Amino acid sequence: GEHAGEPLPAAVAAADAAQRLAAEITSEQAGSGSVLYVIVDGVVGGVMLLDDALKPQAAATVQQLRGLGVRPILLTGDRSAAARRVARAVGIGEADTHAGLLPADKQRIILAHTWPQDEPRAQDLEQSMLPRAGRGPLVVGFVGDGLNDCPALASAHVGIVLQEVGTQATVDAASAVLQVDIDQLPAAVTIARRARRLVLTNLLLALSINVAVIGLAATCGLPLWLSVLSDSGGLLVVLANSLWPLTWRVGQAAPRARHNSFGLG
Fold it and tell me: pTM score > 0.90 for this model?
């Protein structure tokens, strides 16, 4: 008929509504997610706004890390509006929120935080692109999952990847694989600190016993069998002390540490 090939009124109305909807998306909404436009014959047929949902335990995890003396930092390649929204939701300050980052940018920021802020090396890393710069003495960890996190994972003192989302490349670049959800990260930090303290205690025990036996042998002339017995006894003491992890309860408070940071990618 005479209207053949012309768009139907309902289709025209739907296309106009979709275009108005696209125009009404505010800059804040567009910045907090990915906007997809569905184009049909050159006309906007629909608009979709995709956004990441926070895990329910994310805010509690950040607060627990703060309670352990860890400074959480958010490093992301997303837009700044999306990064600020996530940072506000989990309790990370704006100064510790870095958005629109490339892999080399994440690596640079990680390396900068391994140096004291008054160190010239830290200031240079904050202001320039030096991905090959050396790592400083301050302990910094990084939690990531994507391929773009590999440089940061390799540069941090402790690189942690989540097994549920990590790829083989990120697993190879990381120092550890967290086989549970991210809400167990504070527990992992607690266990690591206690294990380190236990190792230092065992070293001190072994050295103290050996020094005492050597001193007694040099001054009092200990018989050979008693020296051998004391050496074996020291080994048994160290082994017995190493059984303490069987009694640990992860929910207990862990000692606070200074100058620790964790980057969340």
Answer: no
